[in-house]
Design a protein that fits this description.
mainly alpha; elongated; 83% helix; membrane
């Protein structure tokens, strides 16, 4: 486990530098459409329609960069890259998003029930004696629910990457001109725990880096006193996603390479132990010549 985690972190700067330009271009389109739309309904439409494809674009860029860095792919073609991009967005990533949406629906329903019950309690207390004695307890309970929900969403994302990380790398490898033709389930669940832990490590390390960069930016440019404040959050999100995707993509590419090596070893073992000894071309020529002479 430690080898994969260490190598992923060590490979991250190379992958990050290759991913950042794509992330910046994608962020300009995504945040530009949202920021320059005054109608709230259209903002929601853009967020709903563009979030998954934009994340998939940056994720694909990071995976391709990682595969190139570990020498596990060849240059892509437009056709293969487009197909791989669609598969990454709607086969590898969409199940994770669906589980997160279901979890959000359940948490929202529970909160709705809790809020309704708490509102009735507060109303009865206020009508009875004119005070609200349990308000602090209710706030603490809501805070606990919100914290638990945050950890739940985080675990779903981490476990989703653990299950799909190697498969995502296989999908990115399919974008190559001479693609390996991996099927949809290739690599699903491989190195699950290692990739799940790597997700949290990337979340922690890259979060610290982004916070430090944001503080430095605000100190240097005095962002709080200028019109640049609206650009700080998008810039921080773009850098964080690039760092996070670079680290996790490095781990996915290394896991994909390990799976290929493992399969190659299995094929070699089967051929060596079950298929019999290999017959060289020289031996076949000599055998043919001896039969002709005989």
């Amino acid at each position: 486990m430690y080898t994969l985690l260490f190598n992923s972190v060590a490979l991250m700067p190379t992958v990050f530098l290759r991913t950042l330009p794509v992330a910046i271009l994608t962020a300009l389109v995504y945040f530009g459409l949202i920021q320059n739309t005054s109608e709230p309904l259209w903002k929601l439409v853009f967020i709903a329609l563009l979030t998954t494809p934009c994340i998939a674009i940056v994720r694909m860029a990071a995976l391709r960069a990682a595969l190139v860095a570990v020498d596990r792919t060849t240059p892509p073609t437009i056709d293969h890259l487009t197909k791989a991009q669609m598969r990454l967005a709607y086969v590898n990533l969409l199940p994770i998003n669906i589980v997160q949406m279901l979890a959000m629906f359940i948490v929202t329903a529970l909160l709705s029930v809790e809020i309704t019950g708490s509102a009735k309690t507060i109303a009865v207390q206020f009508i009875g004696n004119g005070t609200v004695g349990e308000l602090d307890e209710i706030i603490a309970e809501f805070s606990a629910i919100a914290t638990a929900a945050g950890w739940l969403f985080s675990f779903i994302a981490a476990a989703g990457f653990g299950a799909m990380g190697t498969a995502m790398a296989g999908t990115a490898a399919n974008a190559a001109e001479k693609k390996p033709r991996h099927d949809i389930v290739f690599g699903v669940g491989y190195n699950f725990w290692r990739l799940t832990v790597l997700y949290y490590i990337a979340q922690a390390l890259n979060g610290v880096v982004v916070v430090i960069l944001a503080i430095l930016m605000m100190a240097i440019f005095q962002v709080g006193q200028t019109d640049l404040a609206i650009y700080v959050a998008p810039a921080a999100v773009t850098i964080y996603i690039s760092l996070h995707f670079a680290t996790t993509a490095a781990g996915a590419a290394l896991s994909y390479g390990a799976l290929l090596d493992e399969q190659a070893e299995i094929r070699e073992f089967v051929q060596r132990n079950l298929s019999g000894p290999e017959t060289s071309n020289q031996y076949l020529r000599e055998l043919r010549r001896s039969r002709q002479q005989g």
